[in-house]
C-alpha cells in the first residue's frame, strides 16, 4: 500500500452533485485530483478548476494512489470498478467507497478488493454537498484502521470530520441507520407534539419556542445512562412516565388525530410494564427495544 498522509494524488469517480463536491473539496485542500465520469461533460467544470480529466476509469485509477468512488449505487460502482483493467490499476492502493450501498453490497465489494490486493474503506456521508465544501461534514468509515490512518490526511479534506466507526467492512452503511432512526424518530415526535398543539388551538409558535428552549439537553444524560447500562430511577420511575404518556394517547384520540405514533409509543410502555421495568428509570426502555429480559 503506497498511501500516506502526505499523498496528494486522488481520483474521484462519479461527478454527480456529491462526487463533484468531493472533488472540489480535495482541490481546495491542495490535492492533485483526477476525475472520471461516464458523461464526460460532467467533468468539465472540475477540469476548469484544475482537475485532470481521465479518458477512462482504468486510466484514472492507474494515475493516482487513492480512488474515491461516489456513484448512484452498488451496481453502478461494480460495473465501473470490477474490471480486469481497474483491478490491476488499483492493486496496492486505497479504494474508498462513498456510493449509496447496503452493508452486504459493501462486503461484496470488500471481498473483491481483498482478492485483488486493494485496501478498502466504505463510508457514509452525514451531510449535504454544502457541508462538505464548508468543511463541516462528518463522513463515517469502516474498514482496517491501518488503511484509515494511512489515508486520514486525504479523508480529512472531504468535509473535515472523518470518523472510523469500526474495522469490519460494511460497518459504515449499517451505523448510519442508527442516526437515521434517531433523526426520524425525533422529528416525528416533534411533529406529533405540534399536531396536538394545533388541534387543541394553541399557537404553534409557542410550542416551537418551548421545544427549542428545552433543546436536546436530555440526550447527553440519557446517553451516559445507556453506555453505563444504568437504569436506576434517579428522577422518576418509568411507571410515572407510562401514566403521563397515557394522557397523551387519550388526548390524541379526543382531538381526532392520527394515532399511529402515540399507539406505538404506548405499546412500548405496555411492554416495559409487562417486563417488570416500572420501578426502573426511563432509560430502561432500552431493554425493551433490545429485547433484554427484566
Q: Which superfamily, in CATH terms, is the homologous superfamily of the largest domain?
A: NAD(P)-binding Rossmann-like Domain
Summarize the main sheet: 8 strands, mixed
**Adjacency order of strands in the biggest sheet:** 3-2-1-4-5-6-7-8
Query: What oligomeric state do these chains adopt?
Result: single chain
What is the average of the pLDDT values?
93
Number of helices: 14
Shape: elongated
Please name the defining characteristics of this protein.
Rossmann fold, eight-stranded mixed sheet, 294 residues, N-(1-d-carboxylethyl)-l-norvaline Dehydrogenase, domain 2, alpha/beta, 14 helices
3D structure, described in words:
With 294 residues, the protein is of the alpha/beta class. It starts with 8 loop residues before the first strand and ends in a 5-residue tail after the last helix. 53% of the residues lie in helices and 14% in strands. It has two domains: 9-168, Rossmann fold (3-Layer(aba) Sandwich), CATH 3.40.50.720; 175-289, N-(1-d-carboxylethyl)-l-norvaline Dehydrogenase, domain 2. The model is unreliable at 2-6 (pLDDT under 50). The chain has an eight-stranded mixed beta sheet, sandwiched between helices. The protein contains 14 helices and eight strands. It is elongated and about 65 Å long.
Layout of helices and strands:
Layout: E1 9-13, H1 17-28, E2 32-36, H2 44-48, E3 52-53, H3 57-62, E4 66-69, H4 74-81, H5 84-90, E5 94-97, H6 103-115, E6 119-126, H7 129-133, E7 137-142, H8 145-157, E8 160-166, H9 171-199, H10 204-214, H11 218-227, H12 238-254, H13 260-274, H14 285-289
Helix pairs in contact: 9-10, 12-13
Amino acid at each position: 500500500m503506497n498511501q500516506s498522509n502526505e499523498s496528494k494524488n486522488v481520483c474521484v469517480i462519479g461527478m454527480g452533485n456529491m462526487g463533484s463536491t468531493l472533488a472540489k473539496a480535495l482541490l481546495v485542500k491542495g490535492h492533485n485530483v483526477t476525475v472520471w465520469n461516464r458523461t464526460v461533460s460532467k467533468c468539465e467544470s472540475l477540469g476548469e478548476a484544475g482537475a485532470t480529466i481521465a479518458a477512462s476509469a482504468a486510466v484514472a485509477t492507474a494515475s493516482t494512489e487513492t480512488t474515491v468512488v461516489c456513484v448512484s449505487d452498488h451496481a453502478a460502482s461494480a460495473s465501473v470498478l470490477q474490471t480486469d483493467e481497474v483491478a490491476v490499476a488499483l492493486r496496492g492502493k486505497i479504494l474508498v467507497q462513498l456510493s449509496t450501498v447496503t452493508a452486504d453490497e459493501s462486503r461484496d465489494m470488500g471481498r473483491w478488493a481483498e482478492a485483488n490486493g486493494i485496501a478498502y474503506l466504505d463510508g457514509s456521508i452525514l451531510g449535504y454537498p454544502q457541508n462538505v465544501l464548508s468543511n463541516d461534514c462528518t463522513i463515517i468509515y469502516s474498514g482496517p484502521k491501518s488503511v484509515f490512518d494511512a489515508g486520514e490526511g486525504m479523508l480529512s479534506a472531504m468535509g473535515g470530520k472523518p470518523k472510523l466507526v469500526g474495522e469490519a467492512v460494511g460497518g459504515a452503511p449499517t451505523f448510519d441507520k442508527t442516526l437515521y432512526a434517531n433523526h426520524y424518530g425525533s422529528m416525528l415526535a416533534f411533529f406529533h407534539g405540534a399536531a396536538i398543539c394545533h388541534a387543541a388551538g394553541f399557537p404553534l409558535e409557542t410550542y416551537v419556542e418551548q421545544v427549542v428552549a428545552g433543546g436536546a439537553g436530555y440526550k447527553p444524560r440519557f446517553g451516559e445512562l445507556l453506555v453505563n447500562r444504568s437504569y436506576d430511577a434517579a428522577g422518576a420511575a418509568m411507571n410515572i412516565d407510562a401514566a403521563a404518556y397515557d394522557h397523551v394517547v387519550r388526548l390524541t384520540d379526543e382531538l381526532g388525530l392520527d394515532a399511529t405514533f402515540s399507539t406505538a409509543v404506548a405499546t412500548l410502555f405496555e411492554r416495559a410494564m409487562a417486563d417488570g421495568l416500572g420501578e426502573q428509570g426511563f432509560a430502561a426502555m432500552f431493554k425493551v427495544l433490545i429485547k433484554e429480559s427484566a
